[in-house]
Structure formats: C-alpha cells, structure tokens
C-alpha cells in the first residue's frame, strides 16, 4: 500500500486530509509539526507528503529544506497545503523542492487532480 504523511498543526485538517487520502488508496501517518514529521518520515518513508506551512517547532518550509537535504529526501512528492498566498513564498517553496501547491480549503477533487498531474 502507498504511504502518505499529513503534516499540519490542526488536528481537524489532518483528519480531513486523512479521509481524502484514504479514499484515494493511501495509508496515512500524521505529524503535528515539521520536527515530528522528520521522525515519522524516517520511520515510515511515505511516498507522498501533504505539508502545511505555518506550524510551531518547525514550519513546513524548514521541514521541506531539511527533508530535501537528506540522502533519500528527494524521493517523496511534497504538496504544500496552506493559506499562504504570497507569490514570493510560493516560489520559494517550489524552489526548495515542493512538487505542488494547493490552497486551503481543499477537497477530494482538488487533491485527486493534483495527484493525477503528478502522475500518482
């Protein structure tokens, strides 16, 4: 089974995203911030990461840069799921290794469409 990870400090957003991904055939692991996500990533090696931007401890961009610097960190597809709308920040996320970007709120159709665009 394909493993995905949802990284968001909101328990409700994690729950909603989990339901969407499970409906699309993914097993889902969760993390409430980037720091926890590094440990969860090392343990489960998800092929897809749904990543929030604004979180305590370690934000999404810091997590992404740390992940991409790891020897196997280039493998997972990373989709930022955030309310961040500033163009400069979106560009920085893509340049830092994000594969795609979706705005909150999102639904199953939006996530399915992004995954199809990415060949998943």
Shape: globular
Helix content: 40-55%
Which segments are poorly predicted (pLDDT under 50) over 5 or more consecutive residues? none
Strand order of the largest sheet: 2-1-3-4-5
CATH class: Alpha Beta
Calculate Rg over CA atoms. 13 Å
Which architecture name does CATH use?
A: 3-Layer(aba) Sandwich
DSSP summary, beta strand count: 5
What can you tell me about this protein's structure?
By secondary structure, this protein is an alpha/beta fold. The protein has one domain (2-117): 3-Layer(aba) Sandwich (Rossmann fold), CATH 3.40.50. Helices cover 44% and strands 22% of the residues. It contains 5 helices and 5 strands, in the order βαβαβαβαβα. The chain has helices at residues 11-23, 34-44, 60-69, 87-95, 108-117, and strands spanning 2-7, 26-31, 48-51, 77-82, 100-103. A 5-stranded parallel sheet has the order 2-1-3-4-5, with helices on both faces. Helix 2 runs parallel beside helix 3. The model has no long low-confidence stretch (mean pLDDT 95).
């Amino acid at each position: 089974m394909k493993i995905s990870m949802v990284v968001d400090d909101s328990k409700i957003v994690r729950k909603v995203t989990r339901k969407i991904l499970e409906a699309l055939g993914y097993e889902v692991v969760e993390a409430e911030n980037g720091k926890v996500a590094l440990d969860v990533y090392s343990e489960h090696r998800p092929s897809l990461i749904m990543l929030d931007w604004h979180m305590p401890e370690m934000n999404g961009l810091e997590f992404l840069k740390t992940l991409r610097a790891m020897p196997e960190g280039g493998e997972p597809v990373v989709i930022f799921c955030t309310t961040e709308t500033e163009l400069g920040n979106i560009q920085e996320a893509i340049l830092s290794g994000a594969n795609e970007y979706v705005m909150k709120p999102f639904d199953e159709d939006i996530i399915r469409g992004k995954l199809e665009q990415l060949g998943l």
